[in-house]
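R.M. (postdoc): so does anyone remember the format we settled on? I'll just put the structure tokens first.
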């Protein structure tokens, strides 16, 4: 109750574009799950992650390399890191990395066994361009593991925020994508939703114990 009242008297947060936000956030963004939402997300992602030993894996919008590092630890043959933030990539320790947008991947058709894309597609207003690119660069039978800020959490007022080292808190540009949006975009991109998870954070937050992220495992059907 008191928290709700206090929130009402707090000035509204400024919302930064994704590029501006990650330029400022990069300096304090470690390649580990560094808050309860990310911890719930990572547990669900690792539950659905197919075996990566010997695989060529893209960490798309990989930021400072959290999932690329996990894929390398699990024996991936090659991990490629792509992100559209130079500041995030500058803090990414993996050697094979490049600046690129998820909507135009600088990779050949059918060149990857798997793709991880964590907590990034919500920064894009439309899913289809990125899902079409994901499908194009996957081999037949390849998989994509995607997480996104849960639309229920966003639509009930939850925001993606960060605080700079000098104490300024900002919200980051976000577009809520519903399950049906993923379903439709995946179908149009010739990807099949193979599994879904909607973890809640533990311990529960005050927001009615809503799920915090959606996690999808998509598969590109083997060509006949
Ligand atoms: C919440 S961070 C997640 C970073 C990393 N995947 C992780 O989970 O630790 C979102 C990342 O998406 C990147 N990003 C946002 N829009 C993008 C786009 N259109 N193309 C590529 N990367 C993008 C940002 O620069 C940022 O590094």
């Amino acid at each position: 109750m008191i928290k709700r009242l206090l929130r009402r008297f707090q000035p509204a947060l400024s919302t930064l574009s994704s590029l501006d936000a990650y330029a400022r956030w990069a300096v304090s963004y470690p390649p580990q799950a560094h808050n309860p939402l990310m911890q719930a997300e990572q547990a669900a992602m690792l539950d659905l992650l197919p075996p990566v030993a010997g695989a060529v894996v893209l960490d798309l919008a990989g930021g400072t390399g959290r999932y690329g590092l996990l894929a390398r630890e699990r024996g991936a043959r090659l991990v490629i890191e792509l992100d559209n933030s130079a500041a995030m990539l500058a803090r990414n320790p993996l050697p094979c990395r490049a600046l690129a947008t998820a909507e135009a991947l600088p990779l050949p058709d059918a060149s990857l066994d798997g793709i991880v894309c964590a907590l990034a597609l919500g920064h894009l207003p439309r899913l289809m361009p990125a899902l079409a690119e994901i499908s194009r660069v996957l081999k037949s039978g390849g998989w994509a593991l995607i997480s996104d800020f849960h639309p229920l959490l966003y639509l009930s007022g939850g925001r993606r925020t960060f605080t700079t080292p000098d104490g300024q808190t900002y919200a980051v540009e976000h577009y809520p994508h519903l399950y049906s949006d993923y379903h439709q975009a995946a179908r149009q991109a010739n990807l099949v939703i193979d599994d879904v998870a909607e973890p809640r954070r533990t311990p529960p937050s005050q927001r009615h114990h809503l799920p915090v992220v959606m996690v999808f495992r998509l598969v590109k059907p083997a060509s006949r």
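R.M.: ...and that's the designed sequence above, right after the tokens. Also worth knowing: The chain has one domain: 16-219. The pocket of S-adenosylmethionine is lined by residues 18, 22, 61-63, 66, 83-85, 88, 101-102, 118-120, 123-124 (CB under 6 Å).
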